[in-house]
TrEMBL record:
Domain SHSP: 21-132
Protein name, entry field: Heat-shock protein Hsp20
Source organism, top-level taxon: Bacteria
Family, similarity comment: Belongs to the small heat shock protein (HSP20) family.
Pfam families the record matches: HSP20 (PF00011)
Signal peptide range in chain numbering: none
Length: 146
């Protein structure tokens, strides 16, 4: 029986074993959904110091930054250290039609929640259709002095 060897898959598997726990915990998992006239974004930031959380929007790019400080206890023998420390950042490209000047943010229980309203001009609206028989026709007369 012949086996196929793919060196790229093997390298990815090795990196996954070496960096698996650190890579998985170094991300900012998020949920995003639309509720009525706004979008809601929940970002997990467990252990982040609330004073280090920075959210900004520039040219439709939403950037979220947060920092988790490392424990600096002296005379400690670590048995497991899987919680990474440092600065985390995530960027999202936002679509048009959002009221970026009205974004609100709250942080509770390790979860950052952003509420992004839909802009007024992007909200769906009903357009009344008139029947052709109900429309009065307007004619323009040519100006005789020209």
């Amino acid at each position: 029986m012949a086996t196929r060897f793919d060196p790229f898959l093997e390298i990815d598997r090795l990196f996954g074993q070496v960096l698996g726990a650190e890579r998985a915990s170094a991300t900012m998992p998020m949920d995003l959904y639309r509720s009525g006239d706004h979008y809601v974004l929940h970002v997990d930031l467990p252990g982040a110091d609330p004073g280090t959380i920075d959210v900004n929007v520039e040219d439709r790019i939403l950037t979220i930054r947060a920092q988790r400080s490392a424990r600096t206890d002296q005379d400690v023998q670590w048995l497991a250290k899987e919680r990474p420390a440092g600065t985390y950042a995530r960027q999202l490209t936002l679509g048009r039609g959002l009221a970026l000047d009205a974004v609100s943010a709250t942080y509770a229980d390790g979860v950052l929640t952003l509420t992004i309203p839909v802009a007024e001009d992007a909200k769906p609206r009903r357009i009344d259709v008139q029947h052709a028989g109900d429309v009065t026709q307007i004619t323009a007369e040519a100006d005789a002095t020209t």
